[in-house]
# Entry
Amino acid sequence: EPWSDRNLSNYIVRAEHPFNAEVRLDKLVEDFVTPTDKHFRRNHGPIPNIDGAEWTMSVEVGCRAMPEKSCTKTIRLADLVGLRQFEVVAVLECAGNRRDGLKAIKPVNGVIWGPGTASNSRWGGCRLRDVLVLAGVPANLCDPFYETPRHVEFAAYGEASDDIHYASSISLEWAMNPLNMVLVATEMNGQPLCRDHGYPARIVAPGLIGARWVKWLKYIRVQDK
# Structure
């Protein structure tokens, strides 16, 4: 566990293994852009210790209706850094923020959070759409490829529970819209991502709940379901 990266005085720790901690509100409101050491920490399993120099991610385009569009591409960190870089200031909020209010009414599952799992940071990296185009997804949203609704699945390195890795998805249409600024992020607040926040690469999806912002990317998969 990367304890050296965690300033515990800023947090209310909800679980140590896996580490889950929300930010004390008096600390959270001190900054408009949340410093990394005041950003909440949400994890579903042990924090993987990944060597960025050795890290790879596969980008898979699967299409039953158009098999000629199907392919798999291996992406390294240098590939992401070599694409055009962007920066976006965006709020990341855990889907369970204020779950303690729900628990006060009736039993609920999950980590019982207060209101401290919402943070606003500067995220840097390349656009997800550019990674998908690199892997063969048509850049033009009028291409017949888009006549069938499709989804982009993201999966993480590391085990969440019962030998299952964490994965989530968004619509391909949302991912490819340049106005949505969905990033494959490699930086947070001007520095490389730390381990808790997804080093070496994670999804940043402004406007979508934090459960979609998958960390420690293992693969990205375009699929028909």
In short: The radius of gyration is 18 Å. The chain has a mean pLDDT of 93. The longest helix spans residues 128-134.
